[in-house]
Amino acid sequence: MTIAKEGETIQVHSYKHNGKIHRVWQETVVLKGTRNIVIGANERTLVTESDGRTWLTREPSICYFHAEHWFNIICMLREDGVYYYINMSSPFVYDNKSLKYIDYDLDVKVFPDMSYMILDEDEYAEHRKQMGYPDVIDQILQKNLDTLLGWIKQRRGPFASDFIEVWTSRYEFYKQVKKSK
Known about the structure:
It is a single chain. The chain is built from 3 helices and 11 strands; from the N terminus they run E-E-E-E-E-E-E-E-E-E-E-H-H-H. By secondary structure, it is of the alpha+beta class. This is Nucleoside triphosphate/diphosphate phosphatase. Its cofactor is Mg(2+). Has nucleoside phosphatase activity towards nucleoside triphosphates and nucleoside diphosphates.
């Protein structure tokens, strides 16, 4: 498997269980790339929806993807603090300068005070029937949701107090490198 290289710009592709493209983020800078973890950053990047609509992200974001966990975490840096949006998803694969995963509808929103809300349970139930998610996928997602909620409560991974500072600093470095070219 190829590995995303630090400093390179990649796309992020989200698919649905039926193999159809869901959403594409045009530019994400890789801050860390290993076989198991990709940490990226973007701001004001173009996002294309499956129906062709486009929009720009509003704020800088640090994105955390893992090859063993069934979720990815978007840390949105806003004036009043860091908000987290978590997609319950397949582990990522990296192919042809694109990071790819399957979005399984269920989401979690975490607020700066670390309170959280589980979102889109109805969408998950509907798509589970429509696309025929097997029971094993449901079991994996529920187990990984429990893992994620543990990370939030224990301030692990992207929820750790120094995570944002470390990766925002790295992102600023790469932005300066890009400007000097």
